[in-house]
Amino acid sequence: MADRKKALLGMSPGELKVLATRLGMPAFTGGQIALWLYKGHVTSIDDMSNISKANRERLAEEYEVGCMPPADSMRSADGTVKYLFPTCGDKYVETVYIPDNDRATLCVSSQVGCKMNCLFCQTGKQGFEGNLSAADILNQIYSLPERDKLTNIVFMGQGEPMDNIDNVMKATEVLTADYGYAWSPKRITVSSVGVKNKLKRFLDESDCHVAISMHSPLHEQRAMLMPAERGMPLADIIALMHNYDFSHQRRLSFEYIVFDGVNDSPVHAREIVKLLGGLECRVNLIRFHKIPGVDLHGADDKKMTALRDYLTRHGVFTTIRASRGQDIYAACGLLSTAKKEQELR
Ligand SMILES: C[S@@+](CC[C@H](N)C(=O)[O-])C[C@H]1O[C@@H](n2cnc3c(N)ncnc32)[C@H](O)[C@@H]1O
Ligand code: SF4
């Protein structure tokens, strides 16, 4: 790890021009490097063939592209594929490719583990092992075998994106900028439990869709399920959301895992309607994917449907999200590289 070179992936043309100048090259070489990275998808500096050999060698003394192929993969019966990607910090993260008719969504990770410690989440059980660099986040796309089939990206893998906002913003910039992948921000959704100040910064500086993990409309219960509620209560998140326009391109959704006998009562349903009144948004009900050692159970289909219908009838558009990749532990909240990290220690 000590002698690992710095990654070019994640740098903007402006940053690459500064770098080129520092290394004694013409500034335009920075622009050429950006083209090789984001349009050419080169895997090695040596492949940047319109840059002189001397300059490529100079660059390669300190830098590398920063891409690494997946170290492992598992395929679900439903076509979902879970990849294990190495990171620049010599750790591993999981990424899930989810094909669905004419859509193909990639669920990317933003951290190794997570420090938010939500009661129901296997990534939370792993604890926090480090932030991903912008290169690590982008590599999950850059080195994905199905890269060219992707239609959507969701930051719903390991980690809390707001807790690594600088690198998440750098990565979404490359994905949406003309110099980069030139994707519309409406193909990207960033999911968060809500982190004070960071969420506001994200809303101010990004046009990507936002998903908020709600899971309970009641303060004490949400805090029991999700300690992050103590740092940024749901009421504050919703108050903040009222300052932004979600009626056009940008979409706001709330994720709600339905736990049997915990958050599926009429009181909860009424509270959700009250809280979300006047806000342009939708609710996605999620099935609980059981994790070991946690005494929570998913509500059955009948209860999920009843909650969906109640919310929709009361003006909150609600859908039930299909679970994908459960057989390979790739479904929401099941990602963990704890075992892999232990093996490496
Ligand atoms: C793993 S998180 C990553 C993004 C961000 N940290 C968050 O919590 O929104 C993505 C989604 O998975 C949900 N999730 C976590 N554990 C789950 C589980 N065991 N079953 C179903 N969904 C789960 C989260 O609540 C969140 O809505
Ligand atoms: S649900 Fe999200 S915030 Fe909570 S522990 Fe899991 S990854 Fe972290």
Automatic annotation (TrEMBL):
<keyword id="KW-0004">4Fe-4S</keyword>
<keyword id="KW-0408">Iron</keyword>
<dbReference type="InterPro" id="IPR040072">
    <property type="entry name" value="Methyltransferase_A"/>
</dbReference>
<dbReference type="InterPro" id="IPR048641">
    <property type="entry name" value="RlmN_N"/>
</dbReference>
<dbReference type="Pfam" id="PF04055">
    <property type="entry name" value="Radical_SAM"/>
</dbReference>
<dbReference type="InterPro" id="IPR004383">
    <property type="entry name" value="rRNA_lsu_MTrfase_RlmN/Cfr"/>
</dbReference>
<keyword id="KW-0808">Transferase</keyword>
<keyword id="KW-0949">S-adenosyl-L-methionine</keyword>
<dbReference type="InterPro" id="IPR027492">
    <property type="entry name" value="RNA_MTrfase_RlmN"/>
</dbReference>
<protein>
    <submittedName>
        <fullName>23S rRNA (Adenine(2503)-C(2))-methyltransferase RlmN</fullName>
    </submittedName>
</protein>
<keyword id="KW-0963">Cytoplasm</keyword>
<feature type="domain" description="Radical SAM core">
    <location>
        <begin position="100"/>
        <end position="327"/>
    </location>
</feature>
<keyword id="KW-1015">Disulfide bond</keyword>
<keyword id="KW-0411">Iron-sulfur</keyword>
<dbReference type="InterPro" id="IPR058240">
    <property type="entry name" value="rSAM_sf"/>
</dbReference>
<dbReference type="InterPro" id="IPR013785">
    <property type="entry name" value="Aldolase_TIM"/>
</dbReference>
<keyword id="KW-0489">Methyltransferase</keyword>
<dbReference type="InterPro" id="IPR007197">
    <property type="entry name" value="rSAM"/>
</dbReference>
<keyword id="KW-0479">Metal-binding</keyword>
<comment type="similarity">
    <text>Belongs to the radical SAM superfamily. RlmN family.</text>
</comment>
<dbReference type="Pfam" id="PF21016">
    <property type="entry name" value="RlmN_N"/>
</dbReference>
<keyword id="KW-0698">rRNA processing</keyword>
<keyword id="KW-0819">tRNA processing</keyword>
